[in-house]
Structures are given as C-alpha cells and as structure tokens.
Fold each of these.
Amino acid sequence: MQRRRHVLDLDDFSRDEITALLDSADAMRELLSRSIKKAPSLRGKVVLTLFLEPSTRTRVSFEQAGKMLSADVINISGSGSSAEKGESLLNTALTLQAMHADLIVIRSPHSGAPYFLARNLQRMGVVNAGDGRHAHPTQALLDLMTMRHHIGELEGKRVVIVGDVLHSRVARSDVFGLQALGASVVLCGPPTLIPLDLLHGSEGESLPDVNIEHDLDRAIEDADAVIALRIQQERQGAGMLPSMREYTRRWQVTEGRYRRAKPGALLMHPGPMNEGVEIASSLAHGPGSQIEEQVTNGVAVRMALLYQLLTGGQEEAAE
C-alpha cells in the first residue's frame, strides 16, 4: 500500500491497495481468535474518536481495534463537547491536535466534514467514519472482506444493493470498492430513492458502470451477494415512499426473491436493521446471512487500517 495520512473514501483506492489492506485485515482477524487479543504494534500512538452523531457498531469497533493494537484510544461524543457549546469543528480539531494525538476518527452528520479537517490539520491523520449521506469507507471495506471470504475474488461477481441508495453513504463507498475489484454492481430500489445522476451513466460521471433496476425480482437474478440498506420511517413522511407496507411488498428480500440469486448467495446489511422490513425475518439469521460476520470483520478491517496509517506498514506486527 502507498503511505497515506487520511482515509476519506474509496474513490482514490486502487485494486492493489484495497487487496493489500484486505490481506492485512485477514491477518488481523487471526489475532481476534487468540486467547490474548493484544499486540503491541501501536503502543505509544494516540487515536481520538469524535462522533458527532449516534453510533454503536462503528465507534466501538474503532475503539476495540485501537486497543487491541495497544494504542491509547480517547472517545469524544458530540453531547457535552465544545462543539455542542458553539466551538467550530476546526477549532475543536486544532485543540485536539495540540494535544499531540496521531489520528482522529470522525463521524459527522455533515457531508464533507472529514475532508475539511484533512485539509486543515497538518500533523494529525483523519479517518472518515461516516459523513452525512456521502461516504463510509470502512463499512465498504468490511463488506468487501466478508464477500471475499465467501465467494473469493470479486472480479466478475454480481452484487445487488437494494434500498435507500439516495441517502446511503454505505452504498456510495461500496460501489467504489466493488468497481475497483471488478465486480458488477446493480442498484435497486424505489425511483425516488435512486440518485438521478445514476440513471444514465456516461463517461466522466463518478459512477458510470452502475446498473439501475427498480424491480428487485429482476435485479436479484443470479446475484452472488445482496446488500440490503436501512429504510427510515421519515422517508415516507417526506413523500419518497407510498408506505412502508408498499416498500416491504416490492423491495424486501424475501425467501422467494432470495432463491432467484445464486445458490449460497451472501445476504448482508450494514445495520442497524429493521427486521422484517429490509430483509424477511426468516432470512435475517439464516445460513446465507453474514450480518454478524460483518461486525467481526469490521474490527479486523479497522485494525488493519489503523496499523497502516500509523506505521506505514513498515513494521511487522508482533507475534
């Protein structure tokens, strides 16, 4: 991998760089199975997590990843922080940088916030843990890791992403990662929840190779993996859905639709899941579901990412 200070999205990652990072994550996952889940690789490094909107999986995953590699991890939430009292995001980050932290992991409801910090921080690296509806690169990496474990190399594989693509930072980062590894991506959902600029892909657009299919029965045919996205009730209030019942009828991954995919196709969800809405309850914990494994892989991916950013991959992880 090339030496990076920041990870903001996967749009500037090459196939080789993603593959190298996933290989490193495979090695980190082995550490998770040990009786003593600790390595001294990042001893003396300080990682800050600044979460300006609620999160459980991502925040805890980054904290666990840092601590397992012996970094000092300091968690800062939006509630009660100086930012809540009116201090600007930049001033908050500059104050934290002055405390000689090495890396900040930020989740923000505002698209572009991690990019803003990356441009203005001279000594501290930035990792995007989700910004608005824009990007969520580490979720995409753990999705790629999960798929690679079960269906091998992703070149030529068919992956369907169904749900609220318009508001999903996960979908955007997944698309960049999947395209870099040579997968064919199909986006499916109500027309009101598919970004209009993706309807007619052409050279020069950011996602020119994405296929759009509004009928899930057709989209899921021969799929190697299906990623269902979370649907929020407020989309109905905003007029983007006729009703949750109608969404469930047309775009829920049911047993009948799942059988249209390839035998053994993966069923995934970034969480939190509305069980019985995006995925039928009978499938959510069935043999094809990899939702729990995604959580485990999230820790391994974030361990690999922190290790790469804070050492440049030049040191060997301790046995």
Amino acid sequence: MRAVANGRLNLTQAEAVRDLIDAQTHAAVRQAARQLGGELSKRLQPIKDGLLEIIVPLESSLEFVEDDLPEDIARDIEKRLSTLSTKIDEMADSFRRGRLLKDGLRVALVGRPNVGKSSLFNKLLSSDRAIVTEIPGTTRDTISEVINMEGIPVLITDTAGVRTSPDKIEQLGIERTRRAIADADLIVVVLDGSQPLVDEDLEIIREASNNHCVLAFNKSDLESFRSSNAQEVADNLPLVSVSARTGEGLDALCSNIIKPFTAGYLDESSFVITNARHYDLLRRTSESLQAAQELIQENVSEELILANLYEALRFLGEITGETTPEDILSQIFSTFCIGK
C-alpha cells in the first residue's frame, strides 16, 4: 500500500488523523500534517527498495549458485546494509524529540508555602487559575494546566506548599505534592529570593534534585531580593531569578525547563517520529539488519541472512499497515475516539 493509493490512506496516515485531532501545539499539528501527507511512507519506500535490491540477488544466488558468495559481493551487500541501518537509526533517534511534540512534559512547581508557586503558575498561564492569598497553606490540592513552551505541550502542576502541618486536609494536599514530584519529568523548586533559605527549602531541593530540577528564585522585583542566596545550594542546578508579579525571568525559566529534554535544540522543520509503535518497529528493523550484517561477516548460509532481511522488510511493512496482523490493527484503531 503506497502513501496514497486510489485515494486511500495507509496506516501511518490514518494514525496521523488521530494525532492531528489530539495535537496540542502548532508544532504537533505540523508534524501530524506532514505524516498525513505521506512523508513517513515516502521516507520508508527507498529503504524498502534498497532491501529488495539486496534480497533479489541473494535469492538468485541461493537458487542457482552452489558456492558461497564471492568476497567482493558480500562486502558490497554489507556496506549497503550498513547505509540502510544508518538511515533507520536516524529516523528512530528522532523519536525523543517527536515524543515531546506529541506527548509533552510534566512539570511540577514545588516549594514551601508563600514562596509564590501559585502566582508563578498563574503568570505562566496568563490567567488567574490558582487562588493566591498571603495565608500559608491556601493551595491544598494540585492544579494542572497545559501550556505551550517553544512548541512543546507542558503540563504545569501547581502543588500545595510542603511543610509540617497538623491540618489533615493540608496533609492530604502535601501528600499529593509528593506524588506530583514522583510523576514529574522536571521539578521547578520555587524559592523566596527576598528571604534567607531555611531548612525546609534545602530539604525540598534535596528531594527534587533526584530528578531533572530547576531552582526558581522568586520575587526578584523586591528590594530585599538577593540572588546570592542561591550560591549555597546551586551545586550545578539550573538557577533562574523570576518575578511572578512582573513576569521578569519567565522566558529564561521556560528555556531551562525545556533544555534538558531538547539539549537546547528542537528543529520544528525536520520530520520526526512521534509514534511509539513506529519507533519500536524501526528499532526491530535496525536489529534485523545488524544481525544480517553479522551473519555476512561470519560467512554463513544465505538462507539465514535472507531470514533477517525478510524480517526487516516485514517490520517496515507493519509501520504502514502492509503486513500488520489483524490483532495489532484492532489495538491501534481502538485508540481512535470516534465523535470526539
């Protein structure tokens, strides 16, 4: 089944329709639209053709030549397989960035009460989503919203302030905060930069630093703000001065949130793999090609080499739906939400 044959969509294009519906950012929409246009299928087709160009002479050799493959032909096939493997690996390696565009990141704002977590949360959202008061312990539950950071959907969670409290309701909120910390891809520890750090701050930093972590020293708009407060705890952790009141430092904070997952680089113009099923099949394809190369080096029978090449071809066919078993197809289409 080609990218668009007789007006029909192949499996990757059908999945792109779902991704287009679910897309949360313009970057994700663009990637889904490119897949819907058949770009993945077009990129896979030359690899399939290259595999067939290797399989055909091997089959002929198996049928009509009794001797082993000549050394020069074996080395040529090995070289061509290496080139195909590199192309497959490059596509598979793009999944790390593609997953960000599709699924996004989970980020938790944590800290002790009254450091400005909810104010920072509202500023990031450009909306008064969380209740803000001067009373410690106002936030007693987690609140989450998705925002767009440099083309990546980021689920920001405002959490209850961490402290020792006799209030049972507040204790439940703090327990949810710890669950949010455990579930987060990255933790923003919000600190009051207008005051000296206290033991509770240091304990929160120690707990959060087991994960990707950014220290946000809030209240940079106040005269009492001292960035030097951070020196005793920075220890190679990213540190940003921000003001939840004026918005100062928010761009730097967003960049530091995204940076650990993009290495500071996310080229939205390049085509990336966004589907875990595609990634898995590309990895399997690569493993089969590598196994075939090893067998050629060991000078084994063409039958064993061909078995791996046909397996690689089958995996590529499963991506676009040409050879996908019915039970896998049923599982894929069960993820479509009709009437959403």
Amino acid sequence: MAAEPTSGGTVTSGGTALILGVGGQDGGYLAQHLLSLGYRVVGTSRDAAASRFDGLQMLGIRDQVDLVSMSLVDFRSTMQVISRVEPDEIYNLAGQTSVGLSFEQPVETFESIIVGTVNLLETIRMLNRPIRLYNAGSSEMFGNTGGEAANEETILRPRSPYAIAKATSFWQVAQYREAYGIHAATGILFNHESPLRPERFVTQKVVAAACRIATGEQQQLTLGDLSIARDWGWAPEYVVAMRRMLAADRPEDFVIATGYTATLEAFVAEVFAAVGLDWRQHVEHDPALRRPTEIDCGRGDPAKAAARLSWRATVRMPEVARRMVAARLANAAHAEVRRAA
C-alpha cells in the first residue's frame, strides 16, 4: 500500500501498531485509520476482558483489533506485552485524560502519565528494537499564553496536575530521543472532539444537554465560565497527524491545531442553534464550576505540521459542533427504531 505523504521521508504503510488506550476517543479513530492503511492493530486496556470498547463498537472495528490487557504503570506488564506483540509503532494514548478530574486525583494522574511514559521508554530502550513511539502531549502544557498562538518553541507553563504530568512526559520523550536515539515524538494536540467524547468533557456535555432539552427530557444546563476560548478540531483528522509524525525519517514534536479559536459561548450557541433553540433561554452560569487555575484562551499555530507533515485541519469549531449534534440525534433515532422493533 502507498504511504501517506510526508515531508522528510516516509515509512511504508502496514506493520504492527500497538495502541495504548485504544478504548478512548483517539484510540478508536486511530485504530480505524491504521487499519485502513493495512496495519495489524493491537490495542490495550488495563483489563481487556472486562472493557466494553464502545468506541470500537461504534466504529464497527471491534473484531478487527487484537485486544490485550496491560498496565502501563507496571514495568513488567509493559515489557511483557511489547516483547510479545513486537510492534513497529507504539501510540501512547493511555493515562488519565481529564483536566478537571486531575485536580481531584493528582496522584493517579501523575502515575498514569509520568510513570507510564518512563516505563514505556525504558522498555523500548532495553529491548533495543527499532520501535517508533508516538506520545500524546496536550495544549494544556502551554498554560496561558496571553492570547498568542502557541507553537513548538513556546515556553511551557502548565496550570493543572494533568498539564504538569503531560509536560513531564514531553521532556521525558525529548530526553530519551536525544540520549538514546529512540525514534519518539510528542504530538501537542489542541482540543479535538467527536461523537466518541464522553459526557465528562464539556463539549459532549453541552451537546447531550441541548439534545435532551430539545426533546423535553431536561430543562436547563449549568456551565462555568463561558468566556474561555479554545481551538476545537475534529478528532478523526487529528489521528492522521499522529501517524504522519511517526512516518517521518526524523522524529520531531508537532503542535496539532486548526488555528481557529472560539469561545465556549460560541460553541454553546452553535450547538443549541443546531437543535433549533436559543441557548440564552436554557443555559445558567455558575462561577463555582470554574477550575482553580483555568486557561483563559487556547490558541495553536499548526504551521510546522502544514510545512513538514502536509497536514492541515479542514473542520473548525462551527462544523465540529454541528457534526456532534447530528451524530447524537442519529444515534437517538437509531435507538428509538431498535426499541420499536
């Protein structure tokens, strides 16, 4: 199969990819993308036998992914699985993923991200195999940039336990790349959404509430600071960038974003408009919901990804919001048909 276009060299499509955290939003879409390129895809969770893998089910690829149990915070488990699977590429999407939850569970957040990343890097170093590693960073690492667009040279000023853990893993990857020659890269992804987002994330919380309000199942939605701004992209596009980062001959870190920033208020307005409602009649503001150290504005500069990976986002916030609503309504309609059958 032909490889995807990249700048600076390519790796032929196919081989074995190990996705850590395959049950999450990015894991599902990445598995789908890699399968389309001819990869054998192996996915992990802490207990593969007990996990439901709803995202893989929704995408119709549950039976195409080999699933194994693995604890990334357990070095022996990490070593055993990687030794057995013999992957050509590893995508580290595992660990605690919620900024808000990290304030309540900082220890678990640090362990799952920091310890998990170093276990992974040490395993690759000790096995001494030509494994390529993708590490999931986060735009949260930048903190507040004063409205300036963050790029790969922007200073990291993390403002949450989650962001601190991600920043640490970013430097871990950079150090192992420099000291041991490991082909490892971190993707610094800005917010990216999809129908696979769970409701603990504000975007899906808004979409779910708007759809329920439209059908009379719910009356009001309570949110925190509506003035915060984020660069919201479409998750299925972002996983393409992950793979292209590993396809390059030289490992580098990349900011992945749309370059378009919108407020949470604008996102809410778009979602409610998609179900025929005026958000101002249904949304309440509660200052207590603001995080202890909130980031006021997230703005990304994806110029390097465009130049070196030939990657550009095509779906921006208004369309992201509409697509999430359409998917939610379609799923509800399908569920109604099944109940009636």
